[in-house]
Amino acid sequence: MVNEVSPDSLRSYITSLVSFGTRSTLSTQTDQKKGIGAARNWVLSKFNQFAANSGGRLSAYIDTTTISKGGRVDKPTLLGNVVAVLKGTDPNDNRIFLISGHLDSRASDVMNAIIDAPGANDDGSGTAAVIECARVMSTRSFPATIIFIAVSGEEQSLLGSGFMAEQAKKENWNLEAVFNNDIMGSNNSNETNIIDNTRVRVFSEAFSPADTGRTIQNIRNLGLENDGRSRQLARYVKEIGERYVDNLEVVMVYRNDRFLRGGDHTPFVQRGFAAVRITEMNENYHHQHQDLRIEKGIQYGDLPEFMDFEYLRKNTAMNLANLASLAKATSMPQQVQVETKNLTNSTTLNWSAPKSGKAKGYYVLMRETTSAVWQKKFFTAETKITLPYSKDNYFFAVQSVNETGNESLPVLPSVAR
Q1: Which domain holds residue 408?
Q2: CB-based contacts of 341: which residues, under 8 Å, 6+ apart?
Q3: Final residue before a domain boundary, out of 328, 361, 383
Q4: In whole angstroms, what is the distance from residue 273 CA to residue 275 CA?
């Protein structure tokens, strides 16, 4: 699947997205060639094209809600997220994995819905990655469900992602991971003039604002400030991404997002879901949130000629590898515990089998408390293990692994007394 991700396909998607002039959430929804309405319909047509070759597994629709006037919305506006659902094949597996990019674009004035705002990289790149992942993955089947979504309203304050995150919370989705892709197709920066297409950032928050009471007390007591769900997902993204995509380093950043910026993963994090933001390593602010113009010899504006489509291919493939690995894996092990009833220089962990799928065995992960990544993996076919390493000196986690070698997300142990 990684080899099927095509820079030419990605370029063609972005060329089409740019052709709509502006994709401002406040732009026309009735013109068939210009504005957000035409762009939404085009993305839906691509998803439906892939659905025709999916054996009935992929379905697509536009999920709408009306946003009242206020803030960055100057009139009541119909908001539409373009959604494609690749239904899982295991009826006992209700896990969902979600990949997103935002369809809308903006000029210097976020309220200007008429002026051209090509949005090639912000966020044509993320939207193109979502479309390409849907194209490649729709020809395969996975036990778990994958949702591909091009959200609207990001530039108007994360409206589309907020709408979907609230829906996921109210309907109690078993949403295990959200991959938000925003500005991930350019390889160079202004000011520093760095050019590098071998690194990509993944931003993750330490823990969710929903972690309160006993949960936050447990985080403090056990020193788990870097082990929230989103940060575990970021570690997984790094390991799997670097395993399957050549010449790409996934750089973890211990922040929810950049200074003065926001992204569509945030509403999911705020509701307790594991969500990360994937963004290019070196941003060029001449080509973000800028009116098209030439000023002092510098071309401003978010145009396709400033993108690196080979870099976008790698970042898209990194997303795909993670989505596929998670959706093919069994679910996470249950009731993972570390025994603490005695003073020992060894560590005993036990757990129960996953709810869905058949595990061939389990990886027990270990790292020093100061390490950003897991450093050792121990395989066992049992549901209990004793290791000659002190629980006082290391962090541990357990993940399921199936016959095809696909690993679940890791689960940190609770304390068994």
Answers
A1: 334-416
A2: 416, 417
A3: 328
A4: 6
341 and 324 in a single domain? The answer is no
CA distances from 249 to 200, 242, 290, 323 (A): 6, 6, 29, 18
CATH number, domain with residue 369: 2.60.40.10
Q: Which contiguous run of DSSP H or E holds residue 217?
A: helix 213-222
Distance between CA atoms of residues 183 and 285, nearest Å: 11
Do residues 218 and 301 share a domain?
Answer: yes
In this structure, the answer to whether residues 160 and 186 fall within a common structural domain is: yes
Cα(122)–Cα(185) distance, rounded to whole angstroms? 9
**CA geometry: angle 52, 57, 59, nearest 5 deg:** 65
- Are 292 and 347 within one domain? no
For the chain, what's the residue count? 417
Question: Do 308 and 368 have their domain in common?
Answer: no
**Could you report the per-residue pLDDT of 151-199, keeping only the tens digit for each?**
999 999 999 999 999 999 999 999 999 999 999 999 999 999 999 999 9
What does the pLDDT look like over 312-359, one tens digit per residue? 999 999 999 999 999 999 999 999 999 999 999 999 999 999 999 999
Same domain, 77 and 193: yes
Q: Looking up tokens 């940190």, which residue turns up?
A: 412
Query: Quick one: tokens of 324?
Result: 């596929």
Exposed / middle / buried, residue 166 (Cβ in 10 Å: 0-12, 13-18, 19+): middle
> Are 80 and 62 a contacting pair, CB within 8 Å?
yes
Examine the domain organization and report whether 295 and 347 are in the same domain: no
Q: Vertex 271, ends 269 and 276: CA angle to 5°?
A: 15
Are residues 298 and 361 both part of a single domain? no
**Dihedral sign, CA of 214, 220, 224, 226?**
positive
Q: Of 299, 279, 277, nearest to 290 (Cα)?
A: 299
At 303, which CATH number? 3.40.630.10
Structural domain tally of the chain? Answer: 2
DSSP letters for 133-159: HHHHHTTS--SSEEEEEEES-STTTSH
Phi, psi of 276 (to 5 degrees): -130, 160
Q: Tell me the Cα Rg of the chain.
A: 22
pTM above 0.70, yes or no: yes
Given the structure tokens 């094209």, which residue do they identify? 49
